[in-house]
Design a protein that fits this description.
12 strands; Rossmann fold; globular; about 25% helix; 5 helices; Elongation Factor Tu (Ef-tu), domain 3; 5-stranded parallel beta sheet
Length: about 250
């Protein structure tokens, strides 16, 4: 896919749609977005926010949920949570507001040659997880588990009939939530053949499930994707440090 790197470009907020109480879709429009390839959907962009330093912006990574070449626009879905930098911006943003973006980065997709699939993610990972489901063959089989804090955040997804989707509604702490999710994953019958595993979201959940799939079930690297997007109680900077430590052996 073509990239907007190395320089960020300026885009405008074209539309704002609330998908659920805690997820807002923001459409960003800019003429240079026409340079993107349709395959950018599912890739990521870096958004530039005013941070603690006056000299250096703070970057946050978000999935390209959809791309419209004709209107030179992309859709980005934001989780509306506490006082995070990106979430705070998304809560108060207005039509016409300007922000800088850079990218796109590569898509993180399941291995479509696998015999079955296991996808797990929380609300922060839902845009990327949904894109994976939409890209699957209609004959695909497996599981998709999605963790949300509010039942109203469940969405209608385009899913192959053979993928069993389960919404896990939980408002417990991340460590307890990770144990709950692990138990649910372990309860699912292990299907025949080699799976492709895709796990993203809160650090503790990713850590537990990575151990289960990689160590306990020996799912090979080429059939696995694990990504920690955030960690309960940590800043973005501190989270990046422990994330690097977790994946240092990969």
């Amino acid at each position: 896919m073509k990239s907007m790197k190395p320089s960020p470009i300026e885009v405008n907020v074209q539309a704002i749609v609330d998908l659920s109480p805690h997820m807002r879709r923001i459409t960003l429009k800019g003429q240079k977005l026409a340079l993107l390839d349709p395959s950018c959907v599912g890739g990521y962009v870096k958004l530039f926010f005013d941070g603690d330093s006056q000299d250096k912006p703070s970057l946050r990574t978000y999935t390209i949920r959809s791309f419209n070449h004709e209107s030179c626009s992309i859709d980005v879905d934001f989780v509306l949570h506490g006082g995070g930098l990106a979430s705070s911006w998304a809560k108060k943003v207005s039509i016409g507001d300007v922000i800088n973006v850079a990218g796109p980065g590569p898509r993180k997709m399941v291995n479509h040659q696998a015999e079955w699939f296991f996808l797990i993610g929380d609300l922060s990972a839902l845009p990327a997880l949904a894109i994976n489901l939409e890209a699957m063959k209609r004959s695909a089989v497996g599981y998709a588990l999605i963790i949300v804090n509010d039942i109203r955040d469940c969405q209608t997804l385009d899913v192959p009939p053979g993928i069993a989707v389960e919404w896990i509604v939980s408002d417990v702490s991340s460590e307890a939530e990770a144990e709950t999710v692990l138990s649910i994953v372990q309860s699912k019958p292990w299907l025949t053949g080699l799976p492709s595993v895709w796990v993203a979201g809160e650090y503790e959940i990713v850590k537990q499930l990575r151990r289960y799939f990689k160590i306990d079930n020996a799912v090979p690297k080429e059939n696995s994707y694990y990504s920690s997007y955030w960690k309960q109680g940590l800043t973005d900077t501190d989270h990046k440090i422990i994330k690097r430590q977790l994946f240092a052996t990969d």
